[in-house]
Amino acid sequence: MRDFRSLKVWEKSHAFALAVYRACESFPRTEQYGLTSQLQRAALSIPTNIAEGCGYDSDAQFVRFLDMALGSASECEYLLLFARELGYVDPATYTALHAAVVEIKRMLTGLLKTLRRREPRPPTP
């Protein structure tokens, strides 16, 4: 079992989720059950999946949850672009959030590569 709080990628994704929640406060009320909800759920899913994956003893399970976190990060990247194009996110906020999610994706990808190298491989015939 790992301590998710010790992972830099969890720290960054936690801060990202908080920033997304704050940015969504300015979205129109008509988006409360649409884009706002979707973006908030995707952002919160990143650190949540990292934390959940840390609760398992096997690297294979951890990898599975990191893959889900990476998918949620990609979802956030698109939803932020969509929100920007609708004018719901100002350019400065978009730039900061986009940079953060790209960094999180890079960190997750690096961690996944490291873990996959450690996975036992079946013997070759």
Q: Can you walk me through this structure?
A:
There is one protein chain. This protein has 125 residues and is mainly alpha-helical. Helices cover 74% and strands 0% of the residues. It contains four helices and no strands. α1 (8-24) runs antiparallel to α2 and α1 runs antiparallel to α4. The longest helix is centred in the C-terminal third of the chain and has 28 residues, at 91-118. The N and C termini lie far apart (34 Å). The relative contact order is 0.16.
What amount of the residues lies in strands? under 5%
Low-pLDDT residue spans: none
**Mean residue pLDDT:** 95
Separation, N- and C-terminal Cα atoms: 34 Å
Write the CATH architecture name. Up-down Bundle
The quaternary organization reads as: single chain
Q: How can the largest sheet be summarized?
A: none
Computed over alpha carbons, the radius of gyration is 16 Å
Count of the separate structural domains: 1
Helices and strands, in N-to-C order?
A: HHHH
CATH topology: de novo design (two linked rop proteins)
Counting DSSP H or I runs of 4 or more residues, the number of helices is: 4
CATH class: Mainly Alpha
Q: Shape, please?
A: elongated
Alpha-beta classification = mainly alpha
Per DSSP E runs of 2 or more residues, the count of β-strands stands at: 0
Helix % is over 70%
Could you give a quick summary of the protein structure above?
The protein is mainly alpha-helical. Helix content is 74%, strand content 0%.
Attribute tags:
125 residues; mainly alpha; 4 helices
